[in-house]
């Protein structure tokens, strides 16, 4: 990873916004979570769990923000663009009511940067931008209030706000600005950090706290100094929430990086004083709905403020469905106000636990990797007392089942399964939970057949009756069970294993195809349950015989620390095709792969190739910087591992025997020092088949 230095809207100060790769691979649990994936603030799961003891800290006495604030802020969707205006703000307030968001708990409608004119008036007062807010700010606040909602505004604890146009900041104007906000009816202030002139942060944020208090109006106070001065250590009696990281962006890597930085801070959060991992990106288009569900699940588990960051006037139904999930919101808004802790984190499989009021627990099984993963824990490990059975509510499926203790799921790539678990004497009233799984992601050549084994395991204490397992093949395919796929009754603790024969039609185009596995059954009381595991099959193409260059073969999967994997060029870190000719230690390579640690590229070799070889190293464009380790994996086995190479080294040869392997994966690790500058090249990478 290269650090990105954002200077655009920083005056006199530079701010480094880190981002992290989505490239956490771990297919089949082989690759461990790279050290680079740990941020400095992330000591790893053991420490995070150990640190979960609450420390008594002074609190603001005003009783505000007893649960994390919920609402909207325009920044993530509009930045300073002209569409940020009175119409938008009113439109959002309207939708809060029309779409049930107010009912779901969303209250604050907040303005971010760019609402003011660059100069104060003759009395030193802030002036709303007349183009954006022709009726002034008070009129908008009144409109919002008339709907039973609350209104928020933004400024910076500096001489100017963060936007490069430089709108007036609050430093030195705290009393007057706070008064003006209170007069307008402001209920929430986000106070940023730009152009702070090096004045001590504690002093700057306390001055505004006191100015807000002096107005006599209850105003939620959001500290936005990006975690630079560890506000979680001193701000619990300064603000009601504090940003813990740099700005989020609408990408999986940004969201993941921020979640990992915010997770270890659990002990600092509680009613009236929350960690703020930044506003939501749900619905902005840069992530899949599965990823947005993970984003929303993680934020709610972390008791984060839930500030919608998409323009709801253009939002898809799925966006509303995610944002209005009351089962998930209830975790965020739980009265106990405990941020989730990490129970376990292993190779990108995360188990988070949130203690809830009344002794229940929420468990999130979060899959950071780009392959489906089985993640498993127990009710007792989640902190519940020993009991004969537990009610298990799936908060995305909105379904109650029971378990005798195991809490387990195969979680899709980048997905999160969230359960609410209670020790329940009447557990048997709910159908048994079943866990569905498959032994592999099938790879099949067009016109050929392959095998797959599915399992359906009853996690409950009563039988799953009239169980029927189906594998829904794509159109033109066949998926036939070659062993029983039904059971009259599957007792608690038992597993039905079914073998399948899957045939792809001749001429099927290479690529991924959906292959969902469904288990349908009835509880002893006759209640019907249908549960579906989304799955995938790949149509693969065998490599040609002779020399097959890696850059000319289709990939099964490709993941990179920065930017896409490139064919025959180095990696440019951003877009496809932005690399340069491959060059290692002064030697150029016409063919090869350009990757960025941590990386993994998978190939289908179908048992047809004998060897793989390449000339590997850090691309010359990194200078002497960067280091990486190169590895070749055949099916689940590592068959070659070069030592760590650095930017100063010439190309090394790596070669491996891959005879008999169905798949080969080319893996690049970070060399043990993080992924900065790790432009890693597989020069002349080729198979002999
Ligand atoms: C900073 C904040 C963002 C946003 C912008 C506005 O970057 O961290 O959340 O408020 O400023 O300029």
UniProtKB/TrEMBL annotation:
Q: Which reaction does it catalyse?
A: Hydrolysis of terminal, non-reducing alpha-D-galactose residues in alpha-D-galactosides, including galactose oligosaccharides, galactomannans and galactolipids
UniProt family annotation: Belongs to the glycosyl hydrolase 27 family.
Q: Which organism is it from?
A: Streptomyces sirii
Query: So what EC number does this one have?
Result: 3.2.1.22
Top class in the EC scheme: hydrolase
Short name of one Pfam family for this protein?
A: Melibiase_C
Annotated region Disordered: the residues are 36-65
Q: Which residues form the Glycosyl hydrolase family 98 putative carbohydrate-binding module domain?
A: 544-689
Q: Which CDD domains match?
A: GH27
Query: In its UniProt entry, what is this protein called?
Result: Alpha-galactosidase
Q: Which residues form the signal peptide?
A: 1-37
Q: Which InterPro entries match?
A: A-galactase_NEW3 (IPR018905), Aldolase_TIM (IPR013785), Galactose-bd-like_sf (IPR008979), GH (IPR017853), Glyco_hyd_98_carb-bd (IPR013222), Glyco_hydro_27 (IPR002241), Glyco_hydro_27/36_CS (IPR000111), Glyco_hydro_b (IPR013780)
- Is Disulfide bond among the key words of this record? yes
Q: Cite the source lineage.
A: Bacteria, Bacillati, Actinomycetota, Actinomycetes, Kitasatosporales
SUPFAM superfamilies noted in UniProt:
(Trans)glycosidases, Galactose-binding domain-like, Glycosyl hydrolase domain
Q: Keyword Disulfide bond on this protein?
A: yes
Question: What ranges does the record list as Low complexity composition bias?
Answer: 36-54
UniProt keyword list: Disulfide bond, Glycosidase, Hydrolase, Signal
